[in-house]
Automatic annotation (TrEMBL), chain A:
Keyword Disulfide bond: yes
UniProt entry keywords in alphabetical sequence: Cytochrome c-type biogenesis, Disulfide bond, Redox-active center
Location(s) in or outside the cell: Cell envelope
Family matches, as Pfam families: Redoxin (PF08534)
Organism name: Sphingomonas immobilis
Lineage: Bacteria, Pseudomonadati, Pseudomonadota, Alphaproteobacteria, Sphingomonadales
SUPFAM superfamilies reported for this sequence: Thioredoxin-like
The protein's name: Redoxin family protein
Residue span(s) of domain Thioredoxin: 32-168
Primary residence: other
PROSITE patterns reported for this sequence: THIOREDOXIN_2 (PS51352)
Entry-linked InterPro entries: Redoxin (IPR013740), Thioredoxin-like_sf (IPR036249), Thioredoxin_domain (IPR013766), Thioredoxin_ResA/DsbE_sf (IPR050553)
Automatic annotation (TrEMBL), chain B:
Domain Cytochrome c-type biogenesis protein CcmF C-terminal residues, every copy: 325-636
Lineage of the species this protein comes from: Bacteria, Pseudomonadati, Pseudomonadota, Alphaproteobacteria, Sphingomonadales
Biological source species: Sphingomonas immobilis
Membrane topology per record: Multi-pass membrane protein
Similarity-based family: Belongs to the CcmF/CycK/Ccl1/NrfE/CcsA family.
NCBIfam families: nrfE
Protein name from the UniProt record: Heme lyase CcmF/NrfE family subunit
Amino acid sequence: MRLWLPLLAFAALLAVVATALYKPADRAVHSALVGQPLPAFRTEPLLAGRPGVASAADGKPRLINVYASWCLPCIAEAPQLMRLKAAGVRIDGIAVRDTPEAMRQFLARNGDPYAAIGADKDGAVQLALGSSGVPETFLVDGRGHILDQHIGDIRADEVDGILKTLGQAR
Amino acid sequence: MIAEAGLAALWLAAALALMQLAIAAIGVRRVMAEPDFQTELSGHLLAAVRPVAIVQGVLALLAMVLLITVFVRTDMSVLLVAENSHSEKPLLYKFAGAWGNHEGSMLLWVTILGVAGAAVAIFERSLARATLIATLGAQAMIALGFYAFLLFSSNPFTRLDPAPVDGQGLNPLLQDPGLAFHPPTLYIGYVGISVAFSFAVGALVTRDVGPAFARAMRPWVLGAWIFLTLGITAGSYWAYYELGWGGWWFWDPVENASLMPWLAATALLHSVTVLATRDGLRAWTIMLAVVAFSMSMIGTFLVRSGILTSVHAFAVDPERGSFILALLAIYIGGALLLFAARVGTVRAGNTFDLVSREGALVANNLLLSVILGIVLIGTLYPIIAAGFGTQLSVGPPFFNKAAGPVALLLVAIMAAGPLLRWRRDEAKALVARMAIPIAATVVALAGFLIFAPGIDLLPLLGLALAAGLAAASVAPLWGRNLRRTPLFTYGMVISHLGIAVSLAGMASDSAFTQATLVAARVGEPQRVGPYSVTLDGIAPVIGPNWSALEAHLSARRGSGAAIQLRPQARFFSNPVTSTSESAIATMLDGQLYTVIGQPDGAGRWQLRLWWKPFVTLIWAGGALIALGGVLSLLGRWLRERRARGREAEA
C-alpha cells in the first residue's frame, strides 16, 4: 500500500492542475469599494440645462458612468447604455477632462442616455471613486451603496446582468 | 520547400521513435531472459535500436536547423515566422526568435530530447544491454508524445497563404541577449532530467537497480543539474537588471517552475552518489528520478498552459495545456504505477548508521524534499484556493518564512556531510573535525551582533552559517595531497563553497541593502548608503523602436571620482509598453542600482536608488556551483576513461 502513495499524491496533483485548466481562475481584481457607500463628491454641470452629479442618494438605484467624449470604448458602449435607459435605468454620467462642445457632438452622434452629466475637469472625482480609466460604471443602490464596479465598456451580453443586479436592489 | 522538408523530417523522426519503442518493447524480454540473445531475425532487429535512436536524433536536429533557417531568411510564407519575426530584426534575434515562441520552443524541446537519446545510444557502454534497450524504449516513448504534440497541435512549419509583406515582430522585452541563451539552457536541463527518468524506468523494467546503473545515470543528472543551475542563475540576474525592481528572486510561478526541478535534481545527484558508491537508497533514487522529471514536466506545463498569473505572461491555451497534461498523466502516472508494482521486487540495498556520510546525504535529501514540497504547495495553492472560491496569491513572505529556516538547517548539514565517513562514524570525531567551521560560525555571529546590531534573525543566521559553510566546504582538502586529490572532490568543494558564497550574498542583500525613493531636483544630491547621487539632467534618447527619457546621474563616494549612471524610462510604440532600464554600477563591495520614474510636473523626478552590499555574490556563487558540477563531471569522465584503459591493457 505504502508504494501506491506516490501515485495517489500524483493523481491529486493532477486533479488540481486539471481543474485550473478547465475552470480558469477569476483573475479580475474586485473593487474594495463594493458594498461600501459612494465616496462623497459633487460635480458642476457640464452642459447648460442639465444637472451635475453628486454622491447623495435619493432612494432610487442608478448607474454612474465614468466616461469621456475622447474615449473610443465609450462609443462602443453607447448602444448598451441606450438599452439600459430604455429599460428604465437612470444613468448619471461623469465626463472626465471634457468640454461642453465635444460632449454635445458625442451625444448627438452616439445617443444620449444621461439624466445628469457632471464635469470632472481634472480627474479628481474619478480618483475619489477609485476608477482607473474610462469607461467605468458603478452600480449604486437607493441608499447610495456601491453594488458593483464594472471596469471597461459594457458589452451587449452584460446588459441583462446589470438589470438583474439593479432589480434586486430595489 | 525548406518548411516542408522540416515537417517531413519531423514525421520521419516520429516514425523512427515509434519503431524504437516497438523494438524495445518486444526485445527487452528476450534480452532479459538471454543476455547475449542475437541469432534470429528478431536479434538483428534488436541490434537496430541504437542506430534508430541516433537517426531519430539527427532528424529532430535537422528539423530544428530548418526552422532556424526559415527564421534567418525571414520566410514570411511560414505562419510562425510571420507571427513572431520581422525583416528588420538583428540577426541574433532572428536566430533566437526561432525558439522565442510556443511551437519553436516545443521543437527545441524534442530536438534536445532526440539528441540526448542519440548520445545515450552512442556513448553508453557500462549499462547492461537489457536496461539500455529499456531505457531507449522509455526515451522513445517520451519523444513520441512530444512529436504528436508538435505534429497535431503545434506545427511550427504551417504555411501562410498569401504571405504577408512583413511580420509582426518579437515582443521588445524579449529582444535581449538573455533570450538567446536562457530558454535553451533551461530546456537542456529539463531534458537531461528526462534521460535520468528514462534510465530509472529502464532499470525498473529490468529490475536492475544497482551501482552500475547509478554510474550510468550520474553524468546525465550532473549535466542536467549544471544547466539548470546556470539557467536559474542567469534568469535571476536577468530579472534583477531588466525588471528594475531591485530584487533578484520574486517567487514567481515560472521561477518556481525552474527551481523545483533543480531541487529534485540536487537531491537526486546526492542519492545517486550513495547508490553508485555504497549501493544504498535504491528505491529512493528511482523515486527521485521520477519526481525530478515530473517537476520539469509540471514546469513546462505551468509555463505553456498559462494557468498561473506570472511575469512570464504566456497565453492561456486549454488545448495545448490538456495535451501536456495528458502526457504528464501518461508518463508520470505510468512510471509511478511501474514503481508501485515493481520496486517491491528490487532487492534492498546496503544499510548504514545514522551518523555517516549516507546519513547526512539522506538528511540532505529529506530537507531538499521538504523545501520542494513548500515551493510546490505555495505555487499551486492559488489554484486550490480558487477551487474553493477564494482569490489569493502566495508571495515572498510565505516562501521566505517557510523555506528559509529549512534551507539554513540544510546548510548546517551540508557543512558536516563531506566530513563524515561512509557507513559509520563517531559523533565525537565529527565535532572535532568541525572545530574550525563551528568557530568561524560563532566568530561571524558574534562579529555581526557587535558591529552590525539590528539585523533580522534569518539574514544574521545566514551570514554566520555562510562563514561556517565556507570553512567546512574547503575542509575536505585539508591535509590531503592537493595534486593527487581527484577532480570530482574539487568539484564538490567548489560547489559547496559556491552555496556559501551565494548564501552570503543573499543574506547581505537582505540585511544591509539601503533603498531610497526621492523626488529629485536637478543638482540636488541624494544620499544612499555611502554614496551621494546627483541628478545632473534629463535628456531624451531615441532607439530603433523606442524613445526614452534618460537621467544623467553622477554618484560619488566620499571624495572619490564621480561614477556616471544613465537609467532610462523607455516607451515602446509597438506594442505600446513602457519599461524601466535600470543603471547599475558594480563595485568590489556591492552594487549601486538606480531607476528613473515619473516627473511630478514641478521640475522634480522620481528616483529610486539602492545600495546593495555584496549582492553580486549571489550570482558569483551560482557560477561557482555550476563550475563545481563541471569539474565533477570531468573528473568522473577522466576516472572512467583511465579505468577502461586499464581494462583494455589487462
